[in-house]
Design a protein that fits this description.
The structure holds 2 protein chains of 2 kinds. Chain A is an alpha+beta fold. Chain A contains 9 helices and 20 strands. Helices cover 23% and strands 33% of the residues of chain A. Chain B has 2 domains: 78 residues, no CATH class; 191 residues, MetI-like (MetI-like fold), CATH 1.10.3720. A two-stranded antiparallel sheet of chain B has the order 1-2. Classes of the chains: A alpha+beta, B mainly alpha.
């Protein structure tokens, strides 16, 4: 832990020679005529905390249920730690699942709930007791061992469910919306607890969530899903800063999208002519696209600077009128109407308390950004 | 919504009713509860007391065929309580043997009904939504025919030249008819058949609420299907099992029609003893004592069970 690790050690997905721990190959799941999961291939490495992120009905839970064995695969293969999972029942798999509803057994107390899986393995009473005590300590529930699930709060139930799924030391822990039922404050605290537990136990986590902030916070990598397909896989910052499609850009965080056309396509830069933005947008990196191709230019609200005077040092400058100001405390969101009629959002951190000079409604402002601030989306 | 409530509230009838209730110190709630309470007082408690009274009197050749419990004689109220009827129940082996036999037949019938009803209820609870209602209908369907007719129908099925014997003989499995009518077997068939819906319905109501993710969780933690059933489904369906068993067991103990029609002379059941005592022997006091004793035999275990159930619920909440 203390020694700094090389990039390949902490990020096996960067190493082409690394062997994936979970290997999903061309997996398709159909329910009748409906295709829930469409030809997904995905590698997940040992000790990862991998998030499957997507809206409801995107197939993320179905994929998780195929990993746990509750759903059969229509076609394709899933391998976990080199073992083909086809035809292996859930009770024979070295995976455990933490259910969205927690699925705690209401007729058993916390201790018995946690011991349930160990008993099924035929473990001796003394050893079960030790293991249960150990995991109860880890999730800080020692005093609640004799309570029934009905006598616990939501956060406590969540931790019992986590303890119950972890106590068997599974190769892979599958978590279905693990924090979905908690309120915002508790969720934020629990996120870090979850990361800590994952790191201390060294279990591979696969988490399903629809909450992009949660995915960004906890995961080593995120797989963004849409309509049964994985549209992008990457580390949180890659997904955020380099979305590969309009869907990903729009799904993760807030984004301004300008429609446009490539008018100058060079090795080290391109220029996108965008009537939306009212300017030719200079992009300081190459893009693989056809000449004159229609593209979209996506830029995050916090990457745009706003000023009353025209800035001189920025590559891209346009102007508009402030329509709305939303004060969020840590930052303010401005909605600016460009001359083209396009509305865009600009985020400005509130560095000064009660800034009398702050830009306000109906002011004409200049918006500017660097060549590297946004990305060109071909699809 | 609010407007509608105000409207009815201000109607003269409701206003009068409210005033009346306020004057008598009754609330609408007590009024609603009063109707079933009154019903039970008139049609359950009062007859019960009459029966209890008769059980303590002396049989006589008179009309009604028992002596009064109390009488005025020369300014004295003479109350004579005759416990001999209860003493008689203990002395004559016939009675406690009938009780035991009734309890045994009811208990076994309940067990059979549970063994048949549980899988049926489970299947209905797990059936897709649209077939579930159909299946439930099928369970309730026999109630559309009179209970008596359905028991008579069993005679036609079980008798010597009945449906079963005729079928078995026609395909050559047996040469001579199997005797099924007027045996304990026929009584079991009758009771289980008649009371099966009362087992299935509470079990269904319980099992349909069972959260399927609990079963998945058990499976995920390494439990094979049988273990999952024994450790999760069965304990969680206990309230349904208890309710269904009570609904079968209690009426079966006092069952008269089924043993009378399907049972043989050897089939001892307390319902029949009661009938004979009442109509053949015209010994109302003993018949009443039999009835009261049966109530005690049934009520005491039910109350004990109820209490343990309540305690369990309290512990759970």
């Amino acid at each position: 832990m203390s020694e700094p690790k090389s990039a390949a050690e902490t990020r096996p997905w960067k190493d082409p020679a690394a062997v994936p721990f979970i290997s999903i190959k061309n997996v398709t799941k159909k329910f009748g005529a409906f295709t829930a999961v469409n030809n997904i291939s995905l590698d997940i490495y040992r000790n990862e905390l991998f998030c499957l992120l997507g809206g409801s009905g995107c197939g993320k839970s179905t994929l998780l249920r195929m990993l746990s064995g509750f759903e059969e695969i229509t076609s394709g293969t899933i391998e976990i730690d080199g073992q083909d999972m086809v035809g292996i029942a859930p009770y024979e798999r070295a995976t455990n699942m933490m259910f969205q509803s927690y699925a705690l057994f209401p007729h058993m107390n916390v201790e018995k709930n946690i011991a349930y899986g160990l008993k099924r393995d035929g473990m001796g009473g003394a050893e079960i007791k030790d293991r249960v005590a150990e995991i109860l300590k880890l999730v800080q529930l020692e005093e609640f061992a004799r309570r029934k699930p009905g006598q616990l709060s939501g956060g406590q139930k969540q931790r019992v469910a986590l303890a119950r799924s972890l106590v068997k030391k599974p190769k892979v822990l599958l978590l279905d919306e693990p924090l979905g039922a908690l309120d915002k404050k508790l969720r934020e605290e629990t996120q870090f607890e979850l990361i800590k537990i994952q790191e201390s136990l060294g279990v591979t986590f696969v988490v399903v969530t629809h909450d992009q902030e949660e995915a960004m916070t906890i995961s080593t990598r995120i797989g963004v899903m849409n309509e049964g397909e994985i549209v992008q896989v990457g580390e949180p910052h890659e997904i955020y800063e380099y979305p590969n499609s309009r869907f990903v850009a729009g799904f993760i965080g807030s984004v301004n999208v300008f429609e446009g056309q490539v008018v100058d396509d060079e090795q080290d830069h391109v220029v996108v002519r965008s009537p939306d933005a009212g300017i030719d947008i200079f992009v300081s990196h190459g893009v693989s696209c056809a000449p004159n191709q229609k593209v979209a230019y996506a830029i995050r609200p916090e990457k745009i600077s706003m000023s009353r005077d025209r800035p001189k040092d920025k590559k891209n400058v346009t102007s508009g009128m402030v329509e709305e100001v939303g004060y969020l405390g840590n930052l303010s969101i401005y909605q600016v109407m460009l001359e083209s009629g396009k509305q865009i959002r600009v985020a400005k951190p509130n560095i000064v308390r009660l800034d009398e000079e702050a830009i306000s409604w109906d002011e004409k402002v200049f918006l500017s950004w660097d060549g590297s601030a946004g990305v060109v989306l071909v699809s | 919504m609010n407007g509608a409530v105000e409207k009815t509230g201000s109607s003269p009838f409701v206003a009068t009713l409210k005033r009346l209730l306020a004057r008598t110190g009754l609330s609408g709630r007590t009024l609603v509860i009063a109707i079933p309470v009154l019903w039970l007082l008139i049609f359950f408690l009062a007859p019960f007391l009459v029966v209890a009274k008769i059980s303590l009197s002396e049989a006589a050749i008179a009309r009604p065929p028992y002596l009064p419990l109390w009488e005025w004689s020369e300014g004295m109220l003479i109350i004579s309580l005759n416990f001999a009827n209860y003493q008689y129940l203990l002395d004559d082996a016939l009675y406690y043997l009938s009780y035991l036999s009734s309890l045994k037949i009811s208990a076994l019938s309940t067990l059979f009904a549970l063994l048949i009803g549980y899988p049926v209820a489970y299947m209905i609870a797990r059936a897709p939504d649209n077939t579930r209602n159909l299946l439930l209908m099928l369970v309730i369907l026999p109630f559309w025919t009179s209970f008596l007719l359905r028991v008579y129908a069993w005679i036609g099925i079980l008798k010597g030249n009945g449906v079963i014997n005729n079928f078995l003989m026609s395909i050559g499995i047996i040469d001579s008819p199997i005797v099924m009518m007027q045996t304990d077997f026929a009584v079991y068939v009758g009771i289980v058949y008649t009371y099966l819906p009362f087992m299935i319905l509470p079990l269904y109501a319980n099992l349909v609420k069972l959260d399927e993710s609990l079963l998945e969780a058990a499976s995920d933690l390494g439990a094979r299907p049988l273990t999952t059933f024994l450790t999760i489904t069965l304990p969680l369906s206990m309230p349904g099992i208890v309710a269904g068993s009570m609904l079968v067991f209690i009426p079966a103990v006092g069952e008269f029609v089924i043993p009378a029609l399907l049972g043989g002379p050897d089939t001892l059941m307390i319902g029949r003893v009661l009938w004979n005592e009442f109509f053949s022997n015209r010994d109302w006091p003993v018949a009443s004592a039999v009835a009261i004793a049966m109530l005690v035999v049934l009520v005491v275990p039910v109350m004990i069970l109820q209490r343990s159930q309540d305690e369990k619920e309290e512990a759970a909440s």
